[in-house]
Task: inverse folding
């Protein structure tokens, strides 16, 4: 598919999406967070972090409503644990201001939580965050651990009211959600360090799919997980080779895989920043 066709699909997705309910509030919170954690140290000395050290972690699954006044929806699997644990580890490693969708419990101005549920909310918020960060810093990180719906019911073809039951099986045609990773990389946040995630249930195709995603979307790494072992190990697929990252139950810090994963990713991000500035 040509990039023009993809861009058209993305534009029509956003044009037909129901607007975010509290868009102004979200923009205000986002701008306040960015300003508070800005590295223009003249104004405030809130942090020693560099402006490049902002991380947007996405976490949890998106839903696809079946009715505009939604009673029923299709969910995408994710407990939100990976994003939450990764956010905690980011803060532990101390390099990050974290703008996070999802459930972690840290506060104090270093963490901004922006909850979402639908695919419409998720993608609109991702675009807002990416473009807001683009304006203030060059090398932010996007750590896209959310499980994002691949199929959806376009808003304009969705019934307004609750679908009637009692008239036999329900036929629903789902459209494909346009892939936003390429536009995130090319337009929204071209200088950001971008980590995407790939979950499969069939371990035989996992690495192949992750490698294809790496090449197609030109992200800096793809974190590949198999559903049943995702808490034990992941494979970080990148152009420098594949690295298996495991948890180590004998070491308290490393008893969750995210700790070792974030250590590796933060290290790669630092190298990326150094290379970008040299
Ligand atoms: O949220 P969780 O800890 O239960 O699972 C995390 C995950 C497996 C959903 C995530 O690591 C992931 O791979 N997300 C991308 C899923 C995908 O769209 O392929």
Result:
């Amino acid at each position: 598919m040509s990039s023009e066709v993809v861009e058209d699909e993305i534009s029509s997705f956003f044009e037909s999406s129901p607007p975010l309910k509290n868009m102004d509030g979200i923009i205000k919170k986002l701008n306040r967070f960015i300003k508070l954690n800005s590295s223009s140290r003249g104004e405030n000395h809130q942090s020693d972090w560099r402006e490049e050290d902002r991380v947007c972690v996405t976490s949890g699954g998106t839903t696809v409503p079946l009715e505009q006044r939604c009673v029923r929806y299709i969910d995408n699997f994710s407990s939100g644990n990976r994003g939450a644990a990764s956010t905690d580890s980011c803060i532990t490693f101390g390099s990050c201001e974290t703008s996070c969708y999802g459930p972690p419990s840290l506060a104090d101005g270093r963490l901004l939580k922006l909850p979402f549920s639908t695919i419409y909310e998720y993608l609109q918020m991702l675009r807002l965050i990416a473009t807001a960060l683009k304006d203030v810093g060059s090398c932010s990180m996007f750590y896209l651990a959310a499980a994002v719906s691949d199929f959806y019911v376009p808003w304009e073809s969705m019934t307004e009211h609750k679908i009637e039951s009692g008239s036999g099986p329900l036929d629903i045609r789902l459209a494909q959600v346009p892939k936003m990773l390429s536009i995130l990389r090319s337009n929204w946040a071209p200088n950001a360090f971008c980590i995407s995630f790939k979950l499969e249930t069939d371990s035989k195709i996992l690495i192949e799919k992750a490698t294809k995603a790496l090449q197609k979307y030109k992200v800096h790494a793809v974190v590949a997980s198999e559903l049943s072992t995702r808490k034990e190990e992941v494979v970080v697929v990148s152009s420098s080779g594949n690295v298996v990252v495991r948890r180590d139950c004998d070491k308290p810090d490393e008893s969750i895989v995210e700790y070792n994963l974030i250590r590796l990713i933060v290290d790669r991000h630092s190298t990326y920043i150094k290379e970008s500035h040299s």
